[in-house]
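Fold it.
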Amino acid sequence: MKPADQASFSDLIARLLDEQLERSPALREVARQLATLALQRLDEIEGSIGSESTSAASPSASKQRPTLKPKIVEPTGVVPLRIGDAKIEVEVSGHDHALGAARRAAHEEPRRDDDAGDYLERTARARSIDLGLIATRCRLKAIACRHQIVRQNQERESPEELASRQVMNEQIAHAKTMPDCFLWMYFRKGSGNTDEQLEQIARCYEAMASAAELSSAMSPIEEWSDPDEVHEALQLLSTTCSALRVVLEVSWLTQPDIDQDQTHLWLRLVTAEHRFHVRRHMQLGDPADPDTDAPAARDRAMAMLTDILERKGRTEQAERLFKKAMYHAQKIADVSSSPFVQDPPTHDCVKLNETVRAIADLRPDGLAAFARQIVRLAPPSVFPAEHPAHDLLIEAAAKLESATRQSADNTPEEPRTRNWSQDVHRVRELLRGGQIVMVGGEPRREAIDRMIDAFELESVSWPELSEHGTAEPMRAPIFSPNTKLVAVLIKLTGHEHAERAREFARLAEKPLVHMPAGYNPEQIASEVLNQASGQLTST
C-alpha cells in the first residue's frame, strides 16, 4: 500500500473510531481497557526481547536480570466490539462492572422512532400513492422493455440502432416528466436480460397497470356499492403486484421497483383500514405465477374496468341530464305561477320530456325519487295538450296523489306489524329505544313507520339535504345522545354528504353503515350485522 493510501485509510479509521467513541461511554471504557492491555503486552514483549538479546551477548546477563514483580491477574471475558456495522469479538480483562458495561455497549441499537411515529409515516406515505400514476409508469416501462429487446438485437452505430436510440431518448425524456419514473432497462447494467425475460417483465408491467387502473377507477372503494367487486379488484392488484416482484428478480435491480413497492404498500393500507381480506399473494411465501396468474388477472381487470367505466359514464351523463331536467322544470314552475304569463311553457315542456326520456334510457330503474322532484315543480296538468307529460312523470304524480290521500285518511299503506326475520330481531336488541339517522334520499313516512315497528325505535331522523347544499342538517341528529345508528343511502347520497356523514359519525362515535340498495328493515338488519354489529355490541 502506498504511503498516501495508508494515510487516507488511517484517517478513515480514526474518524470512524471518534464517531463511535463519542456516542457510547461504555465503548470508551472498553477502548481504555484495550489500550491498557496493549501497552502492558508491549512492555512485556519488548522486555522479553531485550533480555534475550542481552543474554546472547553476555552469558552473565541472566544473573543481572532484575526480578519482576508478580503480575496481578484480572478477570477476563469476551466482549463484542462494534465499529459501524462491523462486529468482532475480543478478549478483555477487567472487573465485572467494566465487563458488564462493555457488553451492554455492544448491544446498544441505534435510536429509532417510536412505533406510532413509524406507523403514521408509513400511513401518510401510503395515502399519497397515486394508482393512476403507477399505471402510467408501468405502461411506459412495458413499452421500454420491448424497445430494449429491439435495441439489443441491433448492430451498434447502425442506422437502425441510431433511430432506435432516438426513440429511447424520447421515452427517457417522457419518464423524467413523471415523478420517480426510472427506465432501468435502458441502464447499461440492464443489458444482461434476455429477450424472453424482458418480454415477460413487460407483460407483468402491463398486467399490474390494468389492475391499478381498475382499483383507481373504483376509488373511493369504501363508497363502492358492490363489496364483491372491491374484493375482486384488490385480489387482482395483489396477484399482478406479486407476479411483477417475481419476474424482477432476474433484473439487475438491487432494490424493489418503486411501482411494485408502492402498490404493495397501498394494498396493505387499504386492506387494514377497511378490513378487506385478500386471500392470495400478499406474502413472500405465496408468489403469483407470472406466466399464468398475471395474464389471467390482466384480462379480468380489463374486462371489469371496461364495464365500470361504461357504468360511470352512464351515471355521469344521467347526472347532467338530471340538472337539465330540473332547470326546465323550474322554468315551467316559474311560468305557471306567474300571473303575467298566459301561454303554456311549450318549449320547456318539450325539452323536459326529451330529457326525461333520455334519463329513462340510461337509468331504467331507480328514477322514482327523481320523477317526484320533477312533478312537484312541473305537474302533468301544466303540460299543453299537444305535448303531454312523459309517462314516468304521470306515474310519479299519481303515486304522490295517492300517498297524499292516504296520509289525509290516516290509512297506512301496509300493516305495521308483521313477522320479521331473525336478523331483524337480533338488530332490534341493539337498537331498541334509540334513534336511526337516515342520510340521503327523501323522508318517507311509511318507511319510517316500518323501521320504528321493526326495531322498536323511539324515532327516525331523516334530514332533508339538497344536492349541493350544506351537510349541517345532519350534524345535530348524528350527535344526539339517543342516536344509535347512522345509515347512508349510497345511491341517493352525493359524495360530499356521504363523506361528511362519516366524519360526523366518527367524531360522535356512532356506528355507520352503508346501504348499497334499498332500506327496508330486512336490508338494514343485514347491513348492520355485516358492518356494525361489533361496534354496536361494544357500545
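The two ends are 75 Å apart (CA to CA).
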